[in-house]
């Protein structure tokens, strides 16, 4: 990975995804397999196997690099809170909730994030909503939260939200997969920075095999919501527990989704 970054003149703190074209499929039917390079450190993942294969005379000497994004220097990937810790954090939710949904932030050109810093009060909740699979339930997504100051804003807690089937969906089609809400509770005064990476990077091999693709798709398979800077302030006034507002790219709204173009 380090040599690739050097060759491509990428900053050392750039995360990348690398794919290579593997050996011919059994029986020679269809295009060669598209394989994700795994492992950052020597001896990890399939780097040794890739180098061994690329040294063979029938190897296809191509590497595909995508999903370029900045590696955090101070933010750490945080595990989910479960069991007693989860219940303890939920018990501290005494105020309103504010949501960022993946469709508003990532689909198309995406929308702007809330102005920094985003002010919250102790007891309020930040929700980042992401998908668990694609709309047909074939490919799964993984979401990872990176943040600092988990004593100010809690580590993420999973909440599964059932999705109502839209009127436009064909009868007999697959039921919508439940959405995943990563919930962060404001615990005390202070500042916290976080972002969430949403990925189906490891599903691209399956996609290429299913659709008989000879190379990875051109579009990125990892997207980032954030970073968001949170300024947690002392609770003032009567808490508004139960209210949920979504960021539409310009303001907070009771309705989820981006603001309609041309609407004032």
Please give the structural blueprint:
Layout: H1 2-7, E1 14-21, E2 34-36, H2 47-54, E3 63-70, E4 76-78, H3 83-90, E5 97-101, H4 102-106, E6 118-121, E7 125-130, E8 142-147, E9 157-161, E10 179-185, E11 190-199, H5 204-210, E12 222-233, E13 244-247, E14 252-253
Parallel strand pairs: 5-7, 5-13, 6-12
Antiparallel strand pairs: 1-2, 1-3, 4-8, 7-10, 8-11, 9-10, 11-12, 13-14
Overall 3D form: elongated
- CA radius of gyration: 21 Å
Strand tally? 14
Number of helices: 5
The helix-and-strand class reads alpha+beta
Q: So what's the CATH class of the largest domain?
A: Mainly Beta
Q: What count of structural domains?
A: 2
Q: What's the CATH topology name of the largest domain?
A: Immunoglobulin-like
How far the N terminus sits from the C terminus, by CA atoms, comes to 47 Å
- Mean of residue pLDDT values: 90
**Beta-strand residue fraction:** 25-35%
CATH architecture of the largest domain: Sandwich
Summarize the biggest pleated sheet.
Answer: 6 strands, mixed
How much helix is in the residues?
10-25%
Give the neighbour order of strands across the main sheet: 9-10-7-5-13-14
Low-confidence stretches: none
Order of helices and strands: HEEHEEHEHEEEEEEHEEE
Describe the structure.
- 22% of the residues are buried.
- This protein folds into two domains: 1-71, no CATH class; 74-253, Immunoglobulin-like (Sandwich).
- The strands form three sheets. Strands 9-10-7-5-13-14 form a six-stranded mixed β-sheet. Strands 4-8-11-12-6 form a five-stranded mixed β-sheet.
- The mean pLDDT is 90.
- The chain has helices at 2-7, 47-54, 83-90, 102-106, 204-210; strands at residues 14-21, 34-36, 63-70, 76-78, 97-101, 118-121, 125-130, 142-147, 157-161, 179-185, 190-199, 222-233, 244-247, 252-253.
- Helix content is 13%, strand content 31%.
- With 264 residues, it is an alpha+beta fold.
- The protein is elongated and about 75 Å long.
- A hairpin with a 4-residue loop joins strand 13 and strand 14 (252-253).
């Amino acid at each position: 990975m380090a040599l690739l970054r050097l060759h491509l003149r990428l900053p050392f703190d750039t995360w990348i995804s690398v794919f290579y074209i593997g050996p011919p499929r059994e029986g020679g039917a269809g295009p060669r397999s598209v394989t994700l390079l795994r492992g950052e450190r020597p001896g990890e993942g399939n780097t040794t196997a890739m180098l061994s294969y690329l040294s063979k005379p029938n190897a296809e000497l191509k590497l595909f690099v995508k999903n370029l994004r900045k590696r955090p220097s101070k933010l750490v990937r945080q595990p989910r809170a479960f069991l007693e810790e989860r219940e303890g954090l939920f018990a501290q939710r005494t105020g309103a909730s504010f949501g960022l949904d993946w469709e508003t932030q990532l689909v198309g050109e995406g929308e702007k994030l809330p102005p920094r810093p985003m002010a919250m009060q102790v007891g309020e909740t930040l929700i980042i909503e992401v998908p668990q699979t694609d709309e047909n339930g074939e490919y799964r997504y993984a979401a990872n939260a990176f943040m600092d100051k988990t004593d100010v804003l809690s580590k993420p807690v999973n909440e599964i939200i059932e999705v109502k089937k839209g009127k436009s969906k064909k009868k007999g089609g697959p039921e919508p997969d439940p959405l995943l809400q990563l919930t962060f509770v404001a615990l005390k005064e202070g500042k916290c920075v976080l972002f969430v990476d949403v990925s189906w990077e490891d599903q691209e091999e399956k996609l290429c095999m299913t659709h008989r693709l000879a190379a990875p798709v051109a579009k990125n398979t990892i997207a980032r919501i954030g970073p968001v800077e949170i300024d947690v302030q002392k609770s003032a006034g009567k808490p508004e527990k139960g209210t949920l507002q979504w960021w539409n790219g310009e303001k907070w709204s009771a309705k989820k989704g981006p603001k309609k173009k041309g609407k004032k």
